[in-house]
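Appendix B. Chain record.
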Amino acid sequence: MIDFERLEREKDSLREQFLNAKPFPHIAIDNFLVEGAAEKLYEDAAKPDEHYKIKDVFFSKNRYQFNNYRDISENYAELFADVTSDRFAELISYITDEEIFFDKEFHGGGLHVGTENAHLDMHADFNYHPKHDHWFRNLNLLLYLNKDWKPEYGGQLKLEDARTGEKTQVDVPLNRLVIMHCRDYTLHGYDTTNFPEGKYRTSVAIYGYTLHDKPVDRSRTTVWVSDNPLKKVLAKAWLPAVAIKKKLLG
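Structure tokens predicted for this chain:
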């Protein structure tokens, strides 16, 4: 399903683009899947289901997450096999100049669907896998499946370096893969969407990890950033609250 041959031919150019991008290393790769594959995934994509709704009432809205997306259809099973293959890990490791492997349980990832007026506040992701203390979350890979997407629909991926304040945004059309560093300063999110009725902001989130002999930083959960005064207060309370919950409940 992945166009491996083309990507491997272009891997030197892709590596240069990724490493030199601003505000921090990232790249948007168009036509990531072979011709026709993205359209099949778009048609097969799971529809919103309350059982899979992300229960965050503060920092995001109208978002659904399907971790076991490989069970949606044969096409998604084929995508899962490709993105968890050694060949893919080797390719992404070369492009990003990092030793990468992928979480086959897709903790926090998988198929993400945003419905009417969906949004995701700016944030920096957790740094170590909650179930594996030495798995450092090094990369986010986001495969977009928004057929006939137009800028006026919104949902562009916003990127900001928290150290410098430098910003950019990336469009989210069908069959575009975005790869980005995952650090405490790599803020990202998207504004409220305006998709036509019956269309959703759809993506597959794939997280790349690097194995550390021992953690090099204190484990943290997601760090939220907002200009809203109430959300600022909630964001400050978020980290200690999650730490207490993890200690008590695991």
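Further analysis of this model is presented in Appendix C.
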